[in-house]
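Dear colleagues,

For the upcoming journal club I promised to circulate an example of a predicted protein-ligand complex. I picked one with pyridoxal-5'-phosphate because it came up in last month's discussion. The inputs are reproduced below in full, followed by the predicted structure.
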Amino acid sequence: MNMKEFLQKYPEEEENIRNVRKTYPMKVTNYYLGLIKEKGDAIWKQCIPDLVELQDTVNDEDSLLEEDHTPVPCLVHRYPDRVLLLASNKCATYCRFCTRKRKVGKQVAVTRETLLNAFDYIRKHPEVRDVIISGGDPLMLSDEEIEFILKELRSIPHIEIIRIGTRIPCTMPERITPKLCEILKKYHPLFVNVHFEHPMEITPESTRACTMLADAGIPMGNQTVMLKGVNDKPEVLAELFHKLVQIRVKPYYLYQADQIKGTEHFRTTVQETLKIMEKLYGFTSGICIPQFVIDAPGGGKIPITPEYCQYMNQDGIVLRNFEGKVVEYKNPKKVESKKRIAGQILRIAVVFNLKKAAEKNMPEDAYAEFDAIEVPMAIKNALERKGYIADLVEADENFFEKMKSGKYNFVFNIAEGLNAGARESQVPAILDMLGIPYTGSGVLTQAITLDKTRTKETLIYHRIPTPKYQVFNHWDEKIKPGISFPMFIKPNGEGSSKGIRNNSLVHNEKDLRKMIKFVINTYKQPALVEEYLDGREFTVGVLGNNPPRVLPIVEVTFDHLPDGINKFDSYEVKWYWDNPNNPVDPVVCPADVDDVLKNRIEQVALKAYKALGIVDLCRMDIRLDEVGIPNVIDVNALPGLMPNPVDNSRFPKACFTAGMSYDDIIHTVLSEAMRRNGLYAEARKIKNANRNPLQLSRQG
Ligand SMILES: *Cc1c(COP(=O)(O)O)cnc(C)c1O
Ligand code: SF4
């Protein structure tokens, strides 16, 4: 069909065409026009002008910013090792969606001089190893002109491959002649990238053209643009790609349509294209699947694939396959570490006491403060991910021997100790004796913070608010003047709400005596009785030294608790209600506090941290009294470090809110401890060594 026949068949198009042609060129080969089966079909849309082209006010003329990368006329040098030579500005058919709509068919022909200039540039740039001859359509040039260009390029020693980008096999297949093939095959390695958009374009004629090129030994790729109403369906693209492979053309790129003025009506969304790609990957041969790329303005071609990665870390990757099945790939395990401390390879012991089920005749919360194996494991893994050697070492009766063996030269300490009153000091004391540095507070601080009375004495000496109190060694001691009901009873030397029960809050002497008796008998230690503060309760994490940093404040809210459960942080509240299987979340972080209150809480926490000689990390419980003054009610120099956010472990929760990961927490605690121990230089070296190694080698 020629244009005259077309207009006889569709006379109403004549005026549209005339109007659009004032702005954009129009040309269609008789062959391509003949592929139209009906008005508005996939061929029609690609070649027949449409008035909507003139209505596009959205897009720019040169969205790819190619002009920014044009060192000499007709040459685009956008990527390091390859250039685009725009050798012709004519095409057999002008595609309505063309990226170079502003150029093709408009400018004067590319002159010899311009070409020679471009060759000169390439000659002077030995990094260029690949030239893509494009346009327009370079196969619109005469055989002689084509041969001239190929010959010139081949005479440049650093040009490894030549590529021709052309739509001729699709729109003017008769241009692929035996003579042309004879010329092309003299300049191997030569590739041809063809351009098909729809299965209707794979005809006996285009098949013959591609077969001739393939028989000339030319590897062929195909580029397709996603076009609304033309090929934006998975079955259309799948058919196109299958047919291309049959004519020995490998689908190379699938482009998201560029943001080019006059082409807005062709554009689809990125999500639509990704959905189509998802229907191809796995469902058809890899050889039929092109790479989906977006030629983003100023960014060049950027490949995107549907999201198959579910999760990735140093250990490996969790993936889903094309059927939605979740599978895992594990990285090789790191075995040797180069990390050193004072010239020696750093070997870290993660020291802990394991949580066990309470034995008979023990209170059910006997081991409440001990860790489940998950916690030391998580710390070990976090250290190993940074390349440290780390082992789990239980702080049992053989701990001294394990440390004395010399196998470890640093300790990450989370051990609560065994048996005695100042048990949290045991591991620090042993390590001090052996001269092994460790994370967290030392002997004296651990001993004091485990003893609530000594803690309060220290706080009071430093004028840090803490509730009025009295210590009872016997249930029937006289109540001293100056302390009033309601009162609160807890064991003097426990953490993790141990010994604090729902009925620890008492309003009269009878209940008070009863509770004192319970605490003394059950926990074999004095009972601490404090005046009860009815205000809001907060948990405050402090991290680091020089200066220490207060983490986002955690509020423990009790509003959701059922009637009959008192509104304080009892064993019941902490372990029963605040539990991943339980829907209520009593822990809010960051707490909703105004700046004045926030500042007050932070100042109190920092003062207490300093007064008690705490280092590296700690967690404090703070309650407001009736006039809103923050009072320190408990200090924990070995805060829980449960890794899983759903466990609501409060110190990690505050860190997560501050934007840290679990690994960040562990590495920060470790590097703070190293710095304190004069191992700062090593700590810094380690930090640097962990920077992306690729960046270093790239510079070389
Ligand atoms: C597409 C393109 C190339 C070639 O890119 P490949 O990914 O190697 O096919 C080179 N230069 C420019 C400016 C391009 O747009
Ligand atoms: S053949 Fe290529 S350069 Fe020519 S009009 Fe079509 S898309 Fe544009």
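Two points we might discuss: The longest helix spans residues 595-611. The pocket of iron/sulfur cluster (ligand 2) is lined by residues 91, 94-95, 98, 100, 104, 135-137, 167 (CB under 6 Å).

See you all on Thursday,
B. R.
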